Amino acid sequence: MYMSSDVKSFGEHKANWVTISSDEYESMKSTLEVMSDPELLQQIEESKEDFKAGRYKELRELMDEEL
Questions:
Q1: Residue 2: CB partners within 8 Å, gap ≥ 6?
Q2: Tens digit of each residue's pLDDT (9 = 90 or more) over 16-49
Q3: Are the beta carbons of 20 and 5 closer than 8 angstroms?
Q4: How far is 50 from 48, CA to CA, in rounded Å?
Q5: If you average pLDDT over residues 3-21, what whole number do you get?
Q6: 3-class DSSP assignment, residue 57
Q7: I want to staple 50 with a disulfide (CB 3.0 to 4.6 A). Which of 1, 17, 55, 64 is the partner?
Q8: CA 9 to the chain's CA centroid
Q9: Is residue 22 classed exposed, middle or buried when 0-12, 13-18 and 19+ CB atoms within 10 A define those classes?
Q10: Rg of the chain on CA atoms, in Å
Q11: How many other CB atoms are there within 10 angstroms of residue 20's CB atom?
C-alpha cells in the first residue's frame, strides 16, 4: 500500500490522499457494513461466548455426521 504524506491545500481545507487497492477498499466497506449492524454484532458476541464455553463442533465431527 502506498501512502503519501503530501498535503494539498484547497482554500481553508487541507486534504490528505491515500491510495489503496480495490480489494482493500471492498474489505473496508464490508467491515463497516458489519460494524453498522447491531443484530450481527450481537450474533458475533454470542458465537464468541459459545466458543469460549466449548459449545462448538470441529469440522471433522460435522463431516462424520454427514456420512
A1: 19
A2: 788 899 999 999 999 999 999 999 999 999 999 9
A3: no
A4: 5
A5: 71
A6: coil
A7: 55
A8: 32
A9: exposed
A10: 21
A11: 13
State the cell numbers at 36.
453498522
Residue with cell 458476541: 45
pLDDT score, position 34: 96
CA terminus-to-terminus distance, the chain: 46
Contact in structure between 7 and 16 (CB atoms under 8 Å): yes
Is the pLDDT at 7 greater than 80? The verdict is no
Contact 17, 1 (CB under 8 A): no
Q: Please tell me the predicted confidence (pLDDT) of residue 10.
A: 59
Domain range holding 12? 2-66
Q: Which amino acid is at 33?
A: E
Q: How many domains does the chain have?
A: 1
